[in-house]
Amino acid sequence: MEQTLIDGHPLHPCCRTRTGMTVADQLAYAPEHHTITTLRRLRVPTHRWHGTGEPVLYAHPWQAARLHQQYPWLTDDGPTGPVRPLMSLRTVAPLDGSAHIKTAVDIQMTSAVRTVSPAAVHNGPLLSRLLQHVTRDLPIDVLAETDAGAVITDHGPDRRLAHLIRQPPPADAIPLGILADNPRRFGDPHQIVKDLGVAYFAPLAQLLDRGIALEAHGQNTLAVIHHGRITRTLYRDLGGVRVHPARLHAAGYDPPPLHGDLPTDDDTELQTKLAAAALATVARQLITNADTDPEPLWHLIATALKNHPDLLTHPLPVKATTAMRLATDPLHDRWTHLPNPMAAHA
User: Fold this and answer.
1) Domain coverage including residue 315
2) Whole-model pTM over 0.85
């Protein structure tokens, strides 16, 4: 299902560029070519392993071919079983249905070079447990990052030699990027938006109140469909989450110590993270592709968010992706804003 999407990010002008890959690499590893490959298992000396689980790095074959000789003390333990690349290329799903694996590749894809930071290795399992606790009364399930690890080189845990292992989604889960790309393929757009109001938009806003902003865009979020109706959503990939520790404490939760840029006390940063992913990207793509009068659909979303007036009235943030790509630090978020179609329904 994930390999059927060939257009990529709905707003990014460079969403299918992979700087560093040859044409042959694209054909071998890119999901739109329906490829099947294997990862390399690299055994790591115990004292050079940072993370959970046994000291074995699951390395993308493109990455392993370029870094293995640089570190001869990494022992090649052979290939894994066959895997399919998902929408993100560097995250793979084993054909046997076991856990998904997020790998590191030194390739500029969309807005970033897709490595795995030491902070992500530390945060993944801890944040997974927190989010599963905070979301237990909501129709959103978090696909837990159960294990993570990185090889320790001269400068500490190396983001080029790292992986995350993540709980796989059920077979009936569909990424929102695919749903939004062609909503009529899955049913009546009005019913789809109404269901997402209950299972996606409203719960995301409730999490925001509790101090969690999920970067719930079309690649990170999946819809569970039963008998033609969306009943729940699933969230994966915790690197873009933002956590407000004080707000969580006030709501009765005890956040673990998190590294990197995940913790923040900036309310605007939390709202921007949520609105940019769920409203400026997923909602706009879904409604644009519904091929019907957009106003009733925006009204349905506004109804789901009626208790959150800021989300209804503030301009929608959109990443200034070309400016970010040209910037000295392409990982620093730069924003522009669009009129909010829900303001008329607030």
Assistant:
1) 173-345
2) yes
